[in-house]
Amino acid sequence: MFYKTTSALTVDLLSLPETGMGYQVVDAKRKDKYTKERFLVYNSELIVELDARIFESKQQILKEGFNRILDKANYLTLENVAVVNKSVIQEMRYLSESKTREKQRHSGGRGATDNPKENADGREMFVRLSAYQNDRRIDFENKRLKPGTYTTTRGDYRVCVLYKDDPVDRYALPNDEKVKWAFYVQPKVKDTLQRGLVQPAFGHDGGGIEVYFADGTSRDTYVVMKPYGE
Amino acid sequence: MGNSIQKKIKLKEEHINFLAELPESGMGYQIVNVILKNGQHLMNRVVLNSELLMLEDDENINPDMIERVELGEK
């Protein structure tokens, strides 16, 4: 569905950074709704609902033309508009290459090491799951991840816990030992990472999100260890 | 999440320290080749947490039999 921005909203959007050349991805609340939704806004004036039909919507714009779509679109009033963080966008891109299955797992897509590196945003938290309290990929002395370490996003970990999903299957782990620990890491802006989808392995489906830190993380980025699920 | 029944042995400290500095193949594990002192090669085996080598049920290997470990193919 396409909408036109009100003039006030256009002014607001022009004061916010672009997500890419000519567009912004924003979270905002419709005037009569209580929860936020995600929208793609072209040129701070054409709003497109960012849902499963986004590909068809883009095709329609290409086919009919931007101005024609804009002319016939109705106005939409949005409130509490915030541009979506770029790291979230990056994750959406990878996920858009896959199909969503039960318990918000995904199939298809690519593993983390097949995707390009990106810089952390300094705020996002990642979680490393382990059966072992003495996880050897954590450099406890310098409070950092060692180079070549896999994690998942905090969001995917939360989904795994929320849906009572099996982490051994979701992250395609080779052993069936119970995952007992969650190590939280908050990389700095200079740290690089690669995101992807856990591919099937060891008789497990995978489908969770994996994040690989080829160079590890900076000092003082390891935050805390908690029992799994807490 | 079941309890593991798979056979594992703990590697010697020198091999653990070596693997702990090498990249993982997935969250919590590395795929390695194990070279035994008798010249036998165990290819593409799983090591958990850089320290626990998973073995087949019929394998009887102790850590002293291992000459070296190296990263295998994922």
State mean pLDDT of chain B (0 to 100 scale): 90
Characterize the largest beta sheet of chain A: strand count, sense, and whether it forms a barrel. 7 strands, antiparallel
Strand content of chain B: 35-45%
Class derived from helix and strand content of chain B: mainly beta
Question: Which segments of chain A are poorly predicted (pLDDT under 50) over 5 or more consecutive residues?
Answer: none
Strand order of the largest sheet of chain A: 9-15-16-13-10-14-17
How much β-strand is present in the residues of chain A? Answer: 25-35%
When the domains of chain B are counted, the total is 1
**Biggest sheet strand line-up of chain B:** 1-4-3-2-5
Assembly state: heterodimer
Radius of gyration of chain B: 12 Å
Q: What would the average pLDDT of chain A be, to the nearest integer?
A: 90
Element pattern of chain B in H and E = EHEEEE
Per DSSP, the total helix count of chain B is 1
**H and E order of chain A:** EHEEEHHEEHEEEEEEEHHEEEE
What's the helical proportion of residues of chain B? 10-25%
**Fraction in helix of chain A:** 10-25%
Number of strands of chain B: 5
Class derived from helix and strand content of chain A: alpha+beta
Description:
The complex is a heterodimer of chains A (230) and B (74). In chain A, 22% of the residues lie in helices and 33% in strands. With 230 residues, chain A is α+β, with helices and mostly antiparallel strands. Chain A is elongated, with a radius of gyration of 20 Å. Chain B has one domain. Chain B is 11% helix and 38% strand. The interface between A and B is medium-sized, with 32 and 23 residues.
List keywords for this structure.
heterodimer, A: 230 residues, alpha+beta, 2 domains, 7-stranded antiparallel sheet, 6 helices, elongated, B: 74 residues, mainly beta, 5-stranded antiparallel sheet
Q: How does the SSE layout of this entry go?
A:
The complex is a heterodimer of chains A (about 230) and B (about 70).
Chain A: E1 2-5, H1 7-14, E2 23-30, E3 36-42, E4 46-49, H2 54-64, H3 66-72, E5 74-76, E6 78-83, H4 86-96, E7 98-100, E8 106-108, E9 118-119, E10 126-130, E11 138-139, E12 144-145, E13 149-153, H5 154-162, H6 167-170, E14 181-185, E15 192-197, E16 209-213, E17 222-227
Parallel strand pairs in A: 1-5
Antiparallel strand pairs in A: 1-4, 2-3, 2-6, 3-4, 7-8, 9-15, 10-13, 10-14, 11-12, 13-16, 14-17, 15-16
Chain B: E1 8-10, H1 13-20, E2 29-36, E3 41-48, E4 52-54, E5 66-71
